[in-house]
Amino acid sequence: MDRKKLTVLILDDEENILSSLRRILEACGYTVVTKDKPEEAIDYVRSNVVHIALLDILMPNMDGITVLNIIKEISGLTQVIMMSAYSTVDRIVSALENGANDFLLKPFDNIDAFIAVVENSESKLLRWQKILAETGAI
Predict the structure, then answer these.
(1) Which pTM was predicted?
(2) Got the DSSP string for 71-128?
């Protein structure tokens, strides 16, 4: 699949994170949408196809785990990567138990590792789409 057809949503309340990750992912060929408010991200997912979502765990008004749960209700195929500078074992386990397929620690010191996590999510999505197409579900 052409990466331009894959939409990556980034939700973070830090503008520098949003702009940095947007530049990196657009350079990799993805279509990128950024949001700094959880409610806006949820509204976007309700009315648009989002293939991969990168969600900050600590957000004002609504935490990232809540956003993760809502996104998974709306679109079970969306691959969700959680991000946090303040990680604990409990947060990581909670993210995974709620359907996140990966977890990234901020700041992103290794850009290649960041890209590899996103590409891994892309591979998982494409594999699920193929399985669903073969079974006639899509």
Answers:
(1) 0.92
(2) HHHH-TT-EEEEEESS--HHHHHHHHHTT-SEEEESS-S-HHHHHHHHHHHHHHHHHH
The pair of structure tokens assigned to 21 is: 């990750």
How far is the C-alpha of 3 from the C-alpha of 15, rounded, in Å?
Answer: 24
Residues 91 and 84 sit within 8 Å (Cβ to Cβ): yes
The torsion angles phi and psi of 135, rounded to 5 degrees, stand at -90, 0
Tens digit of pLDDT for each residue in 81-109? 999 988 778 888 888 888 899 999 888 88
**Per-residue pLDDT tens for 114-133?**
999 999 999 999 898 888 88
Number of Cβ within a 10 Å radius of residue 92: 16
User: Of 99, 102, 95, which Cα lies nearest the Cα of 117?
Assistant: 102
Question: Contact 63/91 with Cβ under 8 angstroms?
Answer: no
